Amino acid sequence: MVIDLHPEFGLELALGITYAHWLHERGELEGVRTVKGMKPFYYFCDNVEEVHDHRTIDNAAAGLDSLPNNWIHHCPRIKSSHGVLDYSKWSVPPYKTYYNTDKFKFDKPMIFVSNRYNVEHGKPPMGYFDIPFLYEVFNHLTESGYGVIYKRPKNTEFPLDQNEANGMNMGYRDIVADVDGVGKITDHQLTEFYEDVVLMDDLINSTDTNTYNEIQLQVLSKVSGFVTMGGGGSLLCSMFGVPNISYFNATAECKRDGYFGSDNYYRKMSEHDFYPVLDWVEDVKERGHRDYTEMRNLIKEVFNG
Fold it and tell me: What is the reported pLDDT for 109?
């Protein structure tokens, strides 16, 4: 069988790659047609064509209807399947084992902080870590003996879906704050104030022998934990077998009974401790800001040095 996909990144991870790997294990995967830059995720396939130069949030157009699971929030074939997929034809590639390399060596345990800043279904960005919160996280982790790798794509690194493209077109490019005594800085510039915080972009630029995603997978195989914004980046980070504390601007799908239960797809991505923090969208809108209280408490509890 040939897999041909160009959906949102997280959907390709959870629905497409897992099926392709299952087919591979049975000798039934003939090839993959995917988005430009995605070949490292299909390392197990010798016939990978990067033919798509964009992603789409139209699931039917993205090729998902050819898969055993064509929607991430539930499986119609399973009763009470909120947040649960059909795992009968589902296998997660062992990225941590395959991409574990000595290319990146760190002198202390590293926590990977994954952020994003995109238009969300035509609305201004809501689901992201702002600079005051990042400042608190960087302080706690570095003072607790960790190093930090910070990733927040600028949406110039890979093909975009409609939400990401709209964010670029509408000018949502950097997270910015006015810092007392410093002036306006971006989240990327914030990393420059710490000896033990490294920007993912700098790791990418430190070598010209690999693709963005190959380097990313190599780096992720080395870290000791994750602090993530819910979505595709958080799903990726859930594939490496270490704790993942993830913040969600939760909507109706996540409110369904048992959504983040033991069989939830985030939890099934690897053997890891997964900590979902749900901040309901309507509550954020009503109070006018995101509530990171539970995130702060969990970060201090899980990553305490």
Answer: 98
